[in-house]
Amino acid sequence: MDNPSIFADSENETRNILNQGGTFLKSARCAEFRSAEGRKKAYEQIEEAEIDALVVIGGNGSFTGAHLLHKEYGLPVIGIPGTIDNDLYGTDYTLGYDSATNVVVECIDKIRDTASSHNRLFFVEVMGRDTGFIALRTAVATGALDVVLPEEHSSMEDLISEVEKSFANRKTSNIIITAEGNHLGNTYDISRKIVEQFPHIDTKVTILGHLQRGGAPSCMDRILAGKLGVAAVEALLNGKSDVMCGVENQDVTFTPLEKAISQKVELNMDLLRISRILAT
Q1: How far apart are CA 218 and CA 99, in angstroms?
Q2: What residue numbers bound the domain in which 178 lies?
Q3: Catalytic: which of 85, 87, 98, 242?
Q4: What does the pLDDT read at residue 173?
Q5: What is the pLDDT of residue 273?
Q6: Cα 123 from Cα 118, distance rounded (Å)
Q7: Do the Cβ atoms of 88 and 94 come closer than 8 Å?
Q8: I need a labelling partner for 84 at 20 to 30 A (CA). Which of 91, 132, 137, 234 fits?
Q9: Quick one: what percent of the chain has pLDDT higher than 90?
């Protein structure tokens, strides 16, 4: 950067933010950017600010915009995967995923105290509109009785059977985790169907919602952010563009943005088997 005062200002703005979540950036999707006119306006502002390249942190929507900006105007862009859903192709982990799952585990551990003392059944809904990464990982980590995922099409009868077996075995705490986009529907509706079958069981529902998106980032996320941030800037300096910077098997990798957006990430369903073994 030619102007050292600008560099000093940007240095001051990013000092001591390591312990803050990505919401510190105060960025969000812009509906106007979906149109060619909106992207033209954005590029004009980028030129006016003398910005040479962009490092875009986000998911499918952000990367689609970054890819189009590069395609239409040749602006160098690198993507860093930032979504708690962990559903981007080309990386083992996305920024925010580990922090979000840690929050969920902490909440469920606290809920279990009440579930145990009052012999209650709790349904805990976590984020995951299209994928069950958060739900499945936290089900294993908390020893949940069962987990309901968008990717798995078990029946309501299967869930009823698991609840029946658990109470027959006199388990003192029973927690079922549901992803918000699960195939059985609204968590309150699922709970009502269980109550219809077992009216004697005290059943509660907790929706964790945006609790999962707040708070300080975990140690893993801080290290991942640093690793990907350095790799992204170095990649731009070396002429790379229109790619996502990710981590696979601990190594930094680069995946074309178009591929990262379009390819589906498969959930490791062996974790579901492990979860159900641990729940017995």
Answers
A1: 5
A2: 97-209+268-279
A3: 85
A4: 72
A5: 92
A6: 15
A7: yes
A8: 234
A9: 72
214 occurs within a structural domain: no
What's the mean pLDDT when you consider all of the chain?
Answer: 89
* Amino acid 29: pLDDT: 75
> What confidence tens digit (pLDDT) does each residue in 160-211 have?
999 998 887 777 678 999 999 999 999 999 999 999 999 998 999 999 998 8
In a domain, 107, yes or no: yes
State whether residue 107 is helix, strand or coil.
Answer: helix
* Residue 2 falls in the annotated catalytic set: no
Backbone angles phi, psi at 259, to 5 degrees: -75, -40
Closest C-alpha among 12, 11, 9, 24 to residue 217 = 24
Question: What's the CATH number where 155 sits?
Answer: 3.40.50.460
The span from the CA of 192 to the CA of 196, in Å, is: 6
Measured distance CA(73)–CA(66) in Å, rounded: 11
- How far apart (Å, rounded) are the C-alpha atoms in residues 69 and 49? 16
167 and 272 housed in the same domain = yes
Same domain as 75, residue 8: yes
Residue 13 has pLDDT above 70, yes or no: no
Confidence of residue 2 (pLDDT cuts 50, 70, 90): very low
Looking at residues 259-267, what average pLDDT do you find?
Answer: 93
Looking at the structure of the chain, the number of domains it has is: 2
Instruction: Clarify whether residues 105 and 18 are in a common domain.
Output: no
Q: Strands 77-81 and 174-179: what pairing?
A: unpaired
Angle, helix 156-168 to helix 187-197, in steps of 10 degrees:
50
Are 196 and 122 in a shared domain?
Answer: yes
Report the Cα 272 to chain-centroid distance in Å: 18
